[in-house]
Design a protein that fits this description.
There is one protein chain. The strands form two sheets. Strands 1-2-3-5-4 form a five-stranded mixed β-barrel. It has a two-stranded antiparallel ribbon with strand order 6-7. The chain has 332 residues and is an alpha+beta fold. Helices cover 39% and strands 19% of the residues. The chain has two domains: 14-110, OB fold (Dihydrolipoamide Acetyltransferase, E2P); 119-292, Hypothetical protein af1432 (Orthogonal Bundle), CATH 1.10.3210. The N and C termini lie far apart (56 Å). A hairpin with a 5-residue loop joins strand 1 and strand 2.
Length: 332
């Protein structure tokens, strides 16, 4: 397959792919991980996606030898492949692949997933919350970070694959966590509002250094250090610039960033040990899990269950709520 190939492209949305489908179409390459077979040969573990979702893919040694691997996360690629079953789930086996130029693609919006919300409005909402924090030095610190890195915050994904893994996903997630924390603060009077909301706003700020803008993969420092430490370093450096690095509240905000994954096996070097850190940890986890199940339930089988979802460790159930189609068929 060359840059001048003329084979017709018939696109099937990721959410509609079925075992047995033969493909010749464009995808966005979301992830590219080198692996080795049991016999020691190199193969690639890929994630291909479009605006409707993502699917795992394999490029076996023979295809690598024929077509090379001159493509990276974030690239648009043209793929000839087949869909096979792996553990009862569809998986793409790549036979041919090449990097594609955006000019080849009629509708880029069909490939690149974007948040359904207005990122600029979400960022302004979060900035307004930041300006309301007490003490005023904390408000100035958080506002400065958002002003300085706002373009990245409103365009980056929140993750590579798990949740909010699309352009604008990071600010969508940050805003959602901030709103939920604010709501709980009305019920829990012993929690410091300024520290809790600063932690909610900044908990994933390291993602702008960990992830590539397209959401396809991680940067070298993202792989080697991770977004928790990168985020703390960014906050600490800004605090030093503003002359507030010795404030006691700074350590508590940094503790939220370091502990918001909750457990060491999930990447946190420490567990949450303050009210504010416990709140942000559970709200962050809640927001992520609700996003995961909402996306899983976009594709429900006839029995009301989704396919197995490894992030939920089970098959999500739609419950008794009628589908949009059922609601449209209701007669007075």
């Amino acid at each position: 397959m060359t840059g001048n190939d003329t084979d017709s492209v018939v696109s099937i949305c990721v959410k509609d792919l079925k075992i047995g489908d033969n493909l010749l179409q464009f995808f966005e390459l979301r992830s590219r991980e080198p692996r080795k077979t049991r016999s020691g040969q190199d193969y690639l573990d890929l994630v291909l996606g479009d605006a409707t979702g993502a699917i795992s893919a394999k490029m076996w040694p023979e295809s690598i030898r024929k077509w090379g691997q001159d493509f990276n996360p974030g690239d648009l690629v043209k793929v000839e492949a087949r869909v096979e079953a792996y553990r009862d789930r569809p998986q793409i086996v790549v036979e041919k692949i090449r990097r594609a130029d955006p000019s080849e693609i009629t509708d880029l919006s069909a490939l690149i997933r974007v948040s359904p919300f207005d990122s600029e409005s979400l960022l302004e909402e979060v900035k307004n919350t930041a300006r309301s924090l007490e003490p005023s030095e904390l408000a100035q610190l958080v506002a400065e970070i958002l002003d300085r890195h706002g373009d990245a915050v409103k365009t980056f994904p929140a993750a590579r694959m798990i949740h909010h893994a699309y352009r604008g996903g990071l600010i969508e997630h940050i805003c959602s966590v901030t709103r939920k924390v604010e709501a709980i603060l009305k019920l829990e009077k012993n929690i410091n509002r300024g520290i809790a909301l600063a932690g909610a706003i900044l908990h994933d700020i390291g993602k702008i250094l960990e992830l590539s803008p397209a959401g396809g993969g991680r940067t070298p420092e993202g792989r080697l250090i991770g977004h928790l430490i990168l985020g703390v370093s960014l906050v600490r450096d800004t605090a030093v610039e503003q002359g507030v690095a010795d404030r006691p509240w700074l350590q508590e905000v940094e503790h939220i960033l370091l502990s918001h994954h909750g457990e060491t096996q999930f990447g946190s070097p420490v567990r949450p040990l303050t009210r504010e850190a416990i709140l942000v940890h559970f709200v962050d986890n809640l927001d992520a899990k609700l996003k995961i199940i909402n996306e899983a339930l976009e594709s429900v089988e006839l029995d009301g269950f989704t396919a197995y979802n490894r992030w939920l460790e089970g098959r999500a159930f739609a419950g008794s709520q009628p589908s949009p189609e059922e609601e449209n068929n209701v007669r007075d």
